[in-house]
Each structure stands twice: as structure tokens, then as C-alpha cells.
């Protein structure tokens, strides 16, 4: 495989961009080698600067649920840019997409648009603190909520693969207000609540974590969190930046039948454009300025191009629920195929699947939390990753990331991925 252009671009980038990339996981630190520089993508395929094409299972970390450059999205963007790229003023599409989000996610009664998932989670926690008059929050180990100071503590994902799970620059005061509990450990939550009675404003969680690999809730865990938060007056925040509109129209909260007080969104609601949102109960959201005293603002919030792309994406998903059944069927086929390959090679690795999210944990033990995820053989995964590239499949460059499927994947594509897994595992024995 020729990677000369990517290698040259990476070398050039390091002179002007910290580490040569604008988001750490892109640097391939956890898998080794040189990152690929991408020039185009279409459907289920992505093409690098050396003209290598791959079937890909990143899909911009989730939003390309219909595949790359889908005409429903690209046509909306092309139409919108003709009217200018930004106004810094209200537009009718902001109302349209807000109404659609509230219709698709019943727990959201009002919603505020922002520019990223990080902005959404930072803002949601601030509003929860303003609403409750409390300062502390509970964060789940291994859940990633963006790079806000409060969240870079046992953050999972890129923070771990870069070797910096607790980032310098986060103050002691911030750390003291962040209480940690393992995922799926309800007893630890009860302990923290008892020790910090009437001091906890919010509990924020990825209901289905995708940043320590894909980990599923066990033993009615999410409902138990809901019950504790209700009893203690704690704002329950579901970070559905990855899972919102991907697992179902109503996200993970629809799949598991658990209603949060607030939800953070991103990825899919921009159709791939930079966007985020946070919303929830009317009485909480009415604390947001200018309706209430909690300040949050942004010139590009509700950007007209992002709103046009996101509105078309959500309309398509809302009008075509078959997308979810098709994705689930594709996920089942891929998971069964990968499991058969693991059995063939007599490997005890674990496959986790939920809808169109899937991953292989390179460990022989069940993964129910961040500590379990860290038992994986990351060195072996790195070798596997590069073999998969050589066999024409582009995976997330980290063991601690979910794979994201798009509906552009065909049965032939899925067979190719399964065959690539077989060949790659054979090559790294």
C-alpha cells in the first residue's frame, strides 16, 4: 500500500499543527504508524490522498448514518450556501429542526443549538448546576463527554490512548466537583450520593458508552440511575451525541425505555456538519438565557448550513424508519460473521453489538466497565488495525472506540469486512 502522500502531509502538518492533527485520536498513536489523510468519501467508501479506497467503519464517528455524500444531505448544503454561510441571527430552520427534535425525542421539551458535542455537554452541566443550585456532578469512568475541564477525568477514548487520562490544565477545584463511578456499578452511585447528600447537581452518562469500546448497560442499570436521580433531585443527563438518532429515532433512551431530564446531541443532527444541541424538560431549559439566568451563547449556534443539513437528515430518518431495521440486520450479519471468524481462530475475544454500533474487545473477559476495557491487548489491536487497512477496511484507530456502520454498506461490503477480519487475524497470530 502506497502511503507516501499521507506520510508527507503528516510530516508537513507537524510544523504548524500540534502533533500534526486537530483531534488526538487521528494521530494513530495507539495503533502506531502514520495517519491517513483523506480527500474524499462516497457511500460506504473513503479515499486517502494516495488514492487508496477503503470500506470504512468510522463514518465521521457516527453522523454518516446514510453513508458519505448522501444526496439528501449534500443537496441541502448546496442550497443553503447560496444564501450565505452565517447570519448570526435567527432563521426559520432553527424552529423546524427544534420542533422535529422535540417530536422525535419525547424527553426533550425545549432544545438549544450549539456547535459541538463538547459545547452541548458543558452547557447542560452548567444549566443543571444553575437549576439545582448545587455544584458537584457524577461522571462515569470511561464515558467521554468532550474536552470540557470537568470531563477530562477518567475520560476514556483519545484521552486514554494518548496516555493522558487526567489532562494537565484541569484545576484541583474542578476535579473535586467531579465524582467518579464505574459504569454498571449502581452501588458506587448510591455511595457517592450518600456521601454528598444534597450537593450533586447532575449525573452525566453515555447511556451506551462508545468511547471505551462499545459497552452495554446491565441489570436495568439505566433505570436504577433514573430512580436514584428522581429521589435525590439530581438532573440525569444522557449524552447521546453518538447514540442519538443512531440507535433509534429517540436514541438509546427509546431503546431502553428510560427518560432523562436532559439530553445532549450532536453528530447526526448536523448530517456531518459541525453542530451540537442540548435539551430537556421545559422547567430546566427555561433557566437558559435569555429566558433565564444561566448564560450560554454562540455566534454560529444554529448555523443555517448546519441546520439545513441536519433538518434533511432528521426528516429522512423520521420518514424512513426502515433505516433502523436495515441497519440492525446489517449489524447482526457483521457480528455473527465476526464471531464465526473468532471461533474459527479459537480466539476468546468479545464482540459487542447494539444496532449499528459494534466492536471487538481483544480480551477474554466480559467488558462491563472501563477497567474491563483496559484489560484488552491494545498492541494486538494495533497490528489488527493495520492488517485491516491492508485488506481494505478502515476501522477507528483505537481499541477504545465503537465502530459505526452506515446504511450504505451492502451485503457484499459486509462479506468483505468479515473476510478482512479473517485474513487480518490469521496474519497476526
Task: Give a short overview.
38% of the residues lie in helices and 14% in strands. By secondary structure, it is α/β, with parallel strands linked by helices.
Layout: helices, strands, pairs:
Layout: H1 4-13, E1 38-42, E2 45-48, E3 53-56, H2 71-81, H3 92-104, E4 110-114, H4 117-132, E5 136-140, H5 157-161, H6 172-176, E6 178-181, H7 186-195, E7 200-205, H8 221-232, E8 235-239, H9 251-256, E9 262-266, E10 276-280, H10 282-285, H11 304-319, H12 322-344, E11 350-354, E12 357-361, H13 370-373, H14 378-390, E13 393-394, E14 403-404, H15 411-427
Parallel strand pairs: 3-13, 5-6, 5-7, 7-8, 8-9
Antiparallel strand pairs: 1-2, 2-3, 4-10, 9-10, 11-12, 12-14
Helix pairs in contact: 2-11, 3-11, 7-8, 12-15, 14-15
What can you tell me about this protein's structure?
With 429 residues, the chain is of the alpha/beta class. Helix content is 38%, strand content 14%. The protein has 15 helices and 14 strands. It has helices at 4-13, 71-81, 92-104, 117-132, 157-161, 172-176, 186-195, 221-232, 251-256, 282-285, 304-319, 322-344, 370-373, 378-390, 411-427, and strands spanning 38-42, 45-48, 53-56, 110-114, 136-140, 178-181, 200-205, 235-239, 262-266, 276-280, 350-354, 357-361, 393-394, 403-404. The strands form 3 sheets. Strands 4-10-9-8-7-5-6 form a 7-stranded mixed beta sheet, sandwiched between helices. The protein has a 4-stranded mixed beta sheet with strand order 1-2-3-13. A 3-stranded antiparallel beta sheet has the order 11-12-14, with helices on one face. Helix 7 (186-195) runs parallel beside helix 8. The longest helix is centred in the last third of the chain and has 23 residues, at 322-344. The radius of gyration is 21 Å and the shape is globular. The chain starts with a helix and ends with a helix.
Amino acid at each position: 500500500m502506497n502511503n507516501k502522500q499521507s506520510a508527507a502531509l503528516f510530516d508537513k502538518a507537524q510544523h504548524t499543527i500540534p502533533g500534526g492533527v486537530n483531534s488526538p485520536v487521528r494521530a494513530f498513536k495507539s495503533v502506531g504508524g502514520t495517519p491517513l489523510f483523506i480527500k474524499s468519501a462516497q457511500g460506504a467508501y473513503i479515499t486517502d490522498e494516495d488514492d487508496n479506497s477503503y470500506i470504512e467503519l468510522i463514518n465521521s464517528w457516527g453522523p454518516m448514518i446514510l453513508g458519505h455524500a448522501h444526496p439528501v444531505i449534500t443537496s441541502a448544503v448546496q442550497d443553503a450556501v447560496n444564501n450565505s454561510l452565517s447570519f448570526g441571527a435567527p432563521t426559520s430552520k432553527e424552529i423546524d429542526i427544534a420542533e422535529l427534535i422535540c417530536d422525535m425525542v419525547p424527553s426533550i421539551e425545549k432544545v438549544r443549538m450549539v456547535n459541538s458535542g463538547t459545547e452541548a455537554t458543558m452547557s447542560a452541566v452548567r444549566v443543571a448546576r444553575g437549576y439545582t443550585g448545587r455544584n458537584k456532578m457524577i461522571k462515569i469512568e470511561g464515558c467521554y463527554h468532550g474536552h470540557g475541564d470537568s470531563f477530562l477525568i477518567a475520560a476514556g477514548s483519545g484521552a486514554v490512548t494518548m496516555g493522558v487520562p487526567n489532562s494537565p490544565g484541569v484545576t484541583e477545584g474542578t476535579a473535586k466537583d467531579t465524582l467518579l463511578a464505574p459504569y454498571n456499578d449502581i452501588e458506587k452511585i448510591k455511595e457517592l450520593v450518600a456521601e454528598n447528600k444534597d450537593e450533586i447537581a447532575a449525573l452525566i452518562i453515555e447511556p451506551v458508552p462508545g468511547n471505551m469500546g462499545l459497552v452495554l448497560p446491565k441489570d436495568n442499570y439505566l433505570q436504577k440511575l433514573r430512580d436514584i436521580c428522581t429521589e435525590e433531585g439530581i438532573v440525569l443527563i444522557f449524552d447521546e451525541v453518538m447514540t442519538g438518532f443512531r440507535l433509534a429515532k429517540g436514541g438509546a433512551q427509546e431503546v431502553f425505555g428510560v427518560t432523562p431530564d436532559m439530553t445532549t446531541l450532536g453528530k447526526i443532527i448536523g448530517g456531518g456538519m459541525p453542530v451540537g444541541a442540548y435539551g430537556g424538560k421545559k422547567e430546566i431549559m427555561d433557566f437558559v438565557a435569555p429566558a433565564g439566568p444561566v448564560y450560554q451563547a454562540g455566534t454560529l449556534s444554529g448555523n443555517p448550513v448546519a441546520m439545513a443539513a441536519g433538518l434533511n437528515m432528521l426528516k429522512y430518518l423520521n420518514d424512513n424508519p426502515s433505516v433502523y431495521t436495515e441497519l440492525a440486520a446489517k449489524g447482526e450479519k457483521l457480528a455473527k460473521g465476526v464471531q464465526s471468524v473468532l471461533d474459527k481462530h479459537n480466539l476468546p475475544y468479545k464482540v459487542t453489538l447494539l444496532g449499528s454500533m459494534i466492536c471487538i474487545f481483544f480480551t477474554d473477559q466480559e467488558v462491563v466497565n472501563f477497567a474491563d476495557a483496559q484489560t484488552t491487548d491494545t498492541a494486538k489491536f494495533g497490528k489488527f488495525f493495520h492488517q485491516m487497512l491492508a485488506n481494505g477496511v478502515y476501522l477507528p484507530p483505537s481499541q477504545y472506540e465503537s465502530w459505526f456502520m452506515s446504511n450504505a454498506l451492502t451485503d457484499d461490503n459486509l462479506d468483505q469486512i468479515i473476510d478482512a477480519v479473517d485474513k487480518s487475524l490469521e496474519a497476526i497470530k
